[in-house]
Design brief:
The chain is mainly beta. Among the domains are: 138-242 and 448-477, Expansin, cellulose-binding-like domain (Immunoglobulin-like, Sandwich); 257-400, Jelly Rolls (Sandwich). The chain contains six helices and 27 strands. It has helices at residues 2-18, 58-61, 92-95, 106-112, 445-448, 470-489; strands at 28-35, 53-57, 70-75, 78-88, 101-105, 121-129, 138-143, 154-160, 166-172, 180-181, 183-184, 191-194, 205-211, 216-221, 229-231, 234-235, 257-259, 267-268, 275-282, 295-300, 305-316, 320-330, 336-340, 357-362, 371-379, 389-400, 466-467. The strands form six sheets. The protein has a six-stranded mixed β-barrel. Strands 17, 19, 20, 22, 24 and 26 form a six-stranded antiparallel sheet that branches. α1 crosses α6 (470-489). Residues 4-18, 408-415, 417-464 and 467-478 have low confidence and may be disordered.
Length: 490
C-alpha cells in the first residue's frame, strides 16, 4: 500500500502546486469595485480565459502594458486572481494616477467582499502574480497587405495565454542580421511591425518575447496563417521574485491619517448618529497651525450620540499600534468611548476640555478584530437638540507597529513589476484626500536593462524563458524530493 500512498501524495502535491500562482511583486494597496457586465474582451482583445477578466484604472493600464497580466486581490473575506483585459476610463476613480483601481465581476468581488453590503473595497491588497495557464504562449497574426496573408511591409500580432506579462517583442526575418522591435498598439490590443529598414519580412522568422521579469523566449516559426491562434509551444517560467518569495499579502495598508484637513481616501462619516449638525470642513481651528485649515465639528444631540468613521470593504488591524487625535469640547466631555465596530467599552481616561489637546489610545485597548469596518467616538454626556454638545476633532492618525511596510509616494510605471520606488507623485489624486500609497512602479534602470536584446543587434542573449513543459518538470522534481523525504522519514 505504501507505493500507492506515495504516488497519491505526489499527484496531489503536483496538482496543488500547479494551481498556485508565483508572486511577482511586492504587496500593494489599491481599491476595487464590482460590475455586472459580462463584456470583458476589452481593449486588450484577449480571448476568453479560465482566469476571470478585470479592468484597471487608465494610468495603471499603461497604454496596454498591463494586458494579460494577473493580480491576486485580497479583501476582508479572502483572495481571488484576475487577469487585466481592459482599462476603465470613466469617472474620477478611473482617471486618478495614485492607486490601482480594479473593476471585477461581481462573482469575484463576492469572493473577497460582500457586494450586497458595500460597493467598494478601499483597503484592497493586490500583488502581481503569474497567470496559472496551461500550454504555450498563443499568437494571432493579422497581415497588412492587400491580400490577407501578405506580411512583407506590415503586420500586427496579439498574444495571449502568457504566464508573465510581455514588455518587449522583437523579430528577425529570414536572412536578416538584426532584430527589429515591434511597437505596442494603442489601447493594448497587440504589437505591430512596419517596414522601416530596407529588408522586407520573410519567413521562416525568429521572434523574441521579453517578460516583465526579463526572461526571454525565442520562437522560430514559418509564415503564419492570418487570424488563426497559433501555439508557440514556448512559455515563461513562473518563478517567485526573490524579494517577495514567501510573503503572504493581506489587505492594503491604511493611509496614516483618517483626517487631516480632509477625510483621507475611503473614509466617510455618513453613518454618524444622533447629531444636530456635522461639518467636516469647519474653520474653527483656534489659529493653531497644527490644525491646518479645517477640522471636524459635530454637535451631539443626545446622550449616546456618535461620530462614526466608516471604510467600505473594511481594513486590517494587526499592524495598528496607537490612535492619535486632537480634540476639544464645549461643554467638557468627561465620558467618551472609542470603539471599533458597533460597541465597545473603552473610555478615554481624560476629560476633553475647551482647548485642543492631543490624545493617544493604544489600539490593543480597543480589542479589535482582525478586520474592522468602522471607528466610533461615542459621547455619553447629556445633550439635546436645543442644547447640543459641541465637539471638534482633527489630526486623527494611526501609529503603525514596528516593521510595517508602508509604500512611498510613487508614480505609476508599467515597464516592469509592481514594485515601490521613491519617485515623487506628480498627480493631484482624488478630491477626497487620496494619498499615494499604492505600490505601482517598475524596476530600477539597472534592472530594466538586464537580459535585453538591442535593436539592430545579432546577439540574442536569451534569458530563462522555457518550453511550456519545463515548469511542470521543475515542480515534479522538487515535489518528488519532498515526498521521498517523507517516505524515508516514515
Amino acid at each position: 500500500m505504501k507505493p500507492i500512498y506515495i504516488l497519491g501524495l505526489i499527484l496531489l502535491s503536483i496538482s496543488l502546486s500547479a494551481s498556485e500562482p508565483a508572486p511577482l511583486s511586492s504587496c500593494g494597496s489599491g481599491f476595487a469595485a464590482p460590475t455586472d457586465s459580462t463584456n470583458f474582451l476589452g481593449a486588450c482583445r484577449i480571448p476568453p480565459s479560465t482566469i476571470p477578466f478585470a479592468s484597471v484604472s487608465a494610468a495603471a493600464f499603461g497604454g496596454g502594458q498591463r494586458c494579460g497580466e494577473c493580480f491576486r486581490l485580497t479583501g476582508p473575506l479572502g483572495s481571488t486572481v484576475v487577469m487585466i483585459s481592459d482599462k476603465c476610463d470613466t469617472g474620477e476613480a478611473c482617471q486618478q494616477q495614485d492607486l490601482f483601481h480594479f473593476i471585477i465581476p461581481r462573482s469575484e468581488f463576492d469572493k473577497i467582499g460582500n457586494s450586497s453590503a458595500y460597493g467598494n473595497i478601499f483597503s484592497l491588497g493586490y500583488q502581481e502574480v503569474s497567470c496559472d495557464l496551461q500550454g504555450g504562449i498563443n499568437a494571432n497574426f493579422i497581415a497588412g497587405g492587400e491580400k490577407k496573408d501578405q506580411y512583407q511591409y506590415y503586420f500586427s500580432v496579439t498574444f495571449s495565454n502568457f504566464a508573465i506579462g510581455i514588455k518587449r517583442v522583437q523579430i528577425r526575418g529570414y536572412g536578416w542580421s538584426y532584430y527589429d522591435d515591434l511597437t505596442i498598439v494603442g489601447g493594448g490590443s497587440g504589437f505591430q511591425w512596419n517596414k522601416v529598414k530596407a529588408n522586407e519580412m520573410a519567413f521562416p522568422a525568429s521572434m523574441l518575447l521579453t517578460s516583465v521579469d526579463n526572461q526571454i523566449v525565442n520562437w522560430e516559426f514559418n509564415k503564419p496563417l492570418p487570424n488563426v491562434t497559433i501555439d508557440s509551444k514556448k512559455q515563461f517560467t513562473a518563478r517567485p521574485h526573490p524579494e517577495v518569495s514567501g510573503i503572504d499579502c493581506a489587505m492594503g495598508i491604511l493611509p496614516e491619517y483618517i483626517f487631516k484637513d480632509t477625510l483621507s481616501f475611503g473614509w466617510q462619516v455618513y453613518e454618524s448618529f444622533y447629531y444636530k449638525s456635522l461639518n467636516t470642513s469647519s474653520e474653527e481651528t483656534d489659529d493653531n497651525n497644527k490644525n491646518g485649515e479645517y477640522v471636524i465639528k459635530i454637535q451631539f444631540a443626545q446622550l449616546g450620540a456618535g461620530l462614526q468613521f466608516t471604510r467600505e470593504g473594511g481594513f486590517g488591524t494587526n499592524y495598528l499600534k496607537t490612535l492619535f487625535f486632537d480634540a476639544k469640547a464645549v461643554q467638557p466631555i468627561s465620558n467618551m468611548r472609542i470603539y471599533f465596530g458597533y460597541d465597545g467599552g473603552y473610555s478615554i481616561p481624560f476629560t476633553i476640555e475647551s482647548s485642543y489637546k492631543t490624545f493617544q489610545v493604544p489600539v490593543a485597548d480597543l480589542k479589535p478584530k482582525n478586520i474592522e469596518y468602522s471607528l466610533t467616538f461615542l459621547s455619553l454626556q447629556p445633550a439635546s437638540m436645543d442644547s447640543p454638545q459641541n465637539f471638534w476633532i482633527d489630526n486623527i492618525r494611526w501609529e503603525f507597529a514596528n516593521g510595517t511596510v508602508t509604500a512611498p509616494a510613487v508614480m505609476i510605471d508599467t515597464s516592469g513589476y509592481a514594485f515601490p520606488t521613491s519617485k515623487p507623485s506628480t498627480s493631484g489624486g482624488l478630491s477626497s484626500g487620496i494619498s499615494s500609497i499604492g505600490m505601482t512602479s517598475g524596476f530600477s534602470e539597472s534592472d530594466s536593462q538586464t537580459g535585453g536584446v538591442g535593436t539592430g543587434s545579432e546577439s540574442t542573449n536569451e534569458g530563462s524563458g522555457s518550453d511550456s513543459s519545463k515548469l511542470v518538470i521543475s515542480n515534479i522534481y522538487y515535489l518528488a524530493l519532498f515526498v521521498l523525504s517523507l517516505y524515508l522519514l516514515f
